[in-house]
User: Fold this.
Amino acid sequence: MTVATMDLEAASAGADLDAAFRGLGFVQIVGHGLGDATAERLWSAMDELFDLPLEVKRRHVVADPVANRGYRERGSEALAYSLGASSPSDLFESFNVGHDARADGDRLRARTPWPAEAPSFRDAADRYLDEMVRVAARLDELIGDLLGLPDLAERSRSGPDTMACIRYRRGPDEDAAPAEQLRMGPHSDYTSFTVLRADPVPGLEILGPDGWLPVVPEPGALLVNVGDLLAMWTDDAWPSTLHRVPLRGDGTDPPLRRSVAYFHYPDPGVVVSPLPGWRGEASGYEPVTVAEHLAAKLVGPKQHEPSGGASTRGNRTID
Assistant:
C-alpha cells in the first residue's frame, strides 16, 4: 500500500481526499500554491534559530505545557505517552509558533515568544503561517462537504492552530541509545488535520495495515494526515494517522532532517462527536470540545506520563 498523491485544485479533489483518508488517513498534495521561496526562506531561518547556543534557545521555553509555544529542547518530550505508552525521551528539538492575532488570554492560543536572536525567523514564519491558513481553508471546504458540515471552514478560523518547526540532528546520544529509542515516538495528531513539509530524506513512517510504512515526500509536495478530531467525527472511517520517526542506529539515519508541521483545529468551543451517517454501531466517542481534547493530550508527553482524553488508537499496535 502506498501513499496517494492528489491535486488540491482538481475537480476530483474531494473524492480523492475521501479515498486517501479512508485508506491510510494520509495523502500527498500538489497544487497547493505554497511557493518554494516562502518555504526555503523558513528553512533558512530555522537553521539560524536552531544553530543558536542552547543557553540562548532556553530563554524561549514556555513552561506551561498547554500553551504549546516556544522552544522545546531535544529530549524534553516523549510523544508515545499521548497514546498511553511509555518510551525514552524523543531526540528532536522544535520551536512552536502560532497566530498572535488570535491570542486572547486562552492558554491554547498563547502568544509566541519570538526569538530576537534569530531576526529572520519571525517574518519567515509569519509568511508561512499565512500560506497555511489559505491551504487549511481549502481543505476545510473539501472536508466540510464530505462530512456534511458546510460551515466547517467558517468555524475553523480562530482555532488554536500551532506550527511546529522541527529539527532532527545526529548527536552522540544516538550512538549509545537503547533499542527502544526513537527520534520521535509513535503518536497521532490531536488536530482536524496536519499539513507537513519535510526534507525529502528518510525519516517519517506511518502505520499501515502491513506495519510501518516509510514515507519520503516528493520535492515541493505537502503531506496531509487525519487527526483525532476527524477520526471522532467519522467514527474512525477516516483513521487518525499513527506516525513516528525511527532511530535505526546503523548509519542510515540522515544526519539532518527538518520539517514544519501545521496543526489545524476548529474553533476551541466546537463540539466533536460521531456525525449522523458516519456513526458506527458501537461508537465509543463521547462529545468533547476541541479545547478539552487538545488540553488533555498536550500535557502527558511533556511530563512523561500518559495523556488523558479520548484515544483514537483503536486496536492498532505500535510495537
